[in-house]
Amino acid sequence: xxxxxxxxxxxxxxxxxxxxxxxxxPIAAADxxxxxxxxxxxxxxxxxATEARTQNRLEAAIGLYRQxxxxxxxxxxxxxxxxxxxxxxxxxxEARDSLRRLIDLDHTTGPGFALLGLCxxxxxxxxRALNHIYQARRLGLGDDPQVRRVVLFHEMLLLTRLQEYExxxxxxxxxxxxxxxxxxxxxxxxxxxxxxxxxxxxxxxSDKDLVESAGRxxxxxxxxxxxxxxxxxxxxxxRYPKAPNVHxxxxxxxxxxxxxxxxxxxxxxxxxxxxxxxxxTNVALEYEVRGDLDTAIAYAxxxxxxxxxxxxxxxxxxxxxxSDGEVEQGIKxxxxxxxxxxxxxxxxxxxxxxYTMAGRxxxxxxxxAEFARLKKLAGEIGQ
Length: 383
Hints:
This protein folds into three domains: 1-143, Serine Threonine Protein Phosphatase 5, Tetratricopeptide repeat; 149-273, no CATH class; 296-383, Tetratricopeptide repeat domain (Serine Threonine Protein Phosphatase 5, Tetratricopeptide repeat, Alpha Horseshoe), CATH 1.25.40.10. The chain starts with 19 loop residues before the first helix and ends with a helix. The protein is mostly helical. It contains 20 helices and no strands.
């Protein structure tokens, strides 16, 4: 996927046929006549690289930028343009390495971190890609809406692949707001909504209609078009009443306006899959709101048993136990949640509250400070 970046057009282009040797011929002849200082050589080659790039002589430009950064490895702009051009030519490992050199020189380049993340997406370094996209969002993606949309779309794909489905759905909201819901977004939204940790190109043809049907419902949710969402969910439930996560997804949709309906959908999901950890956790939270702590704790315990690696189950169980007077047991569960998701502000806040209940004021203060730091960071990434 190619786009305008940093004011420089990055398009699917055919390079001109002028070879690097032909371009450098006159320069090479001049070099034979007299030695040249390193600064003068860098000035000459960097200027030639800029000219080749602006004239869309891409192969020549890549060669010249390589030569220029060899002469001056501290030239951040050279590493940027080299990485950009290599990315545009689908030379992702080489582009990645150039952009890593760039961010070594400049830790504040949001576009540099973003393009590095996109390269790492292509080289299948998914955790690194997501981390660098987070850093790019925190530093700023620039003013180009197409750049922002491309980066966020890839973030959504990565979050789904890494099974961070709720976060993927949150990013989807911004993707849809920025540019609507075309076929690619609908398909990606369906995968996130149905909690399938794959990329769209890995989708089996037999599942395509299910995923697209779910995607239309999810995108209508993102567009805050309740009537359309209800219509799409009715169609989805009629055609795929036993497909995994369909009832859970509908329960999420209903949660804001119809608590009873939401709870019924979670229960329907649990009839199909009694170990659906997220459904169990959400049911526990709903019973907490209703003041039925015993039932809430029972569901939270089931959630932890079903998904011991899901930090949310431990966090909810810990909060509920602390509220029910079992403070030390609650702290143990919350500390497990912190270990599993150290970057969760809500876990830190719940743990601070539990520490306060236990009279552990120093630990409570540290958790509150960490909560404030993480909330601030989340706000910066969300900008």
